[in-house]
Please model this.
Amino acid sequence: MTPLATVGILSIGDMGLGPAYYRSLQFCFNRNPIVGLRPGHSAQKWTAEFAHLRDKVQLLDGGIIGGPPHPQSANSPPPATTTSSNPLPSGEPARSSSSDPVRNWYRPSVVTSGPNPLHDAPVSGAHLSAVLNARHIHTDLGPASGLKMCFASINKGFVAIATQAMSTAAQLGVLPELQSHLKEYTPAIGGVAERGVPNMCPKAYRWVAEMEEIAETMRVFGGWKTRGSDEHGAGRETGSEGEAGHAEIGDLFGAASDIYKFIADQSVLGKERVGARENGTTAEDVAKTLAGELSPEKQTTH
Model:
């Protein structure tokens, strides 16, 4: 029998739990700490341990694009209508008929880059790469993370815009009209908002730092300098025009981060947890809840 890979999952969550339940794959999921590492160890500890094993360990840059893996039957809805942390349709849909159980799972795209493709790994690399729906996009380290950041900027950045727009519409008393106009004139966008806004609530605390990381990616690698920052991120006084070769703008994703931080820290919606939802289960619920929390009358009492 061909040797199978030993797969270690760090910080298991929605994303890690899916692959862990790929039944019939017969991969060995090691429950023991990897190379002596435990939660709370510093970055220096991780670096030292992997440096010690540098002749055995080959690192990849990677990211997961799409919702968490989950089994689907022939009658399951396509990814575009499933409820996941990813409101936009993506990933590989389930196959309605196949002798391979893995093909009946919705699987996100696991993008990787670097000089050591996963499918070339000596122990079951091709098999593991196929199972995880891995896509090696570049031989340099970095492009996979960049793709993840750009994808998430559109995906989760839009949800921040929709959240603010719908809650403001609720304050103005025109939320039903906004929803009906989206459904009539831009149904695809309206559908993404209706799914993405409520699905965001239990994830908002995680998206705070992610928006900040996206802002840094856009600034450092995209040339989108934000007003008040130099090339090292330090504050500086600027006018309306930026340096030659750079566009100088307001902090778009920093603002998105602030929206998610408010929801995570100051809204009842921030107490929501995946699998145990109570509030904000629809876009309308989220909009009305935030409208109540952000109402001028309530803010003047604080």
Summary: The chain has ten helices and nine strands. Residues 20-35, 78-90, 93-98, 234-242 have pLDDT under 50 and may be disordered.
